[in-house]
Amino acid sequence: MVFIIMIMMAVSVPYFAQAYQSSLLDSAGRSLIITGQFARLQSVMRQQPVVLFVDREDNRMWVTQTMVNEYGDQAETMLKEVKLHPRVRIVSVIIEEEIPATGKTGEIVFYPNGTCDSAVVTLRGVEPGIGLEVELDPVTTRAVATPVKL
Q1: 3-state DSSP call for residue 131?
Q2: Looking at the predicted structure, is the pLDDT value of residue 5 above 80?
C-alpha cells in the first residue's frame, strides 16, 4: 500500500509544481493586463496621457500621470504600483515594434482618446522554456496573453 502511494506521489508532484508555476505566470499576465486597463481608464477619465512603466530590473510595473496642482505646478503622481512574484521575471519589453528596450524600464503611453503605444511584454517563470507574451493592441488597447517557448 505504501509503495502505491509513493509511486502516485512521484508521478503527481512534478505535475503540481508545473501547475503552480503556470498559475504564477498566468497571474502575472493578468496583473499586467489589468494594470493596462487601469491606465487606459485613468487617461480617458482625466483626459491626460498616462504612462505605464514596466521595469525589468525591479520586476515591477507602475502607472503615473502628470497632475497640475492649484498653483499651476506640474508633478508626476503614481496612481498604481504592482510588484510581480519573485518566481516570475519580465524578460523583455518591446514598444511600437522597435528593438527591445535596452534600458531596464519600458514606457507604454495611454492617450486620452483611448489608444496607446503598441507593446509586447514577455514574462518567464523559473521553469526552463516556459513563458507568457502579453501583446497590447494600440487601437483598442486590448491585451492578449499567449504562452510561448523561450
Answers
A1: strand
A2: no
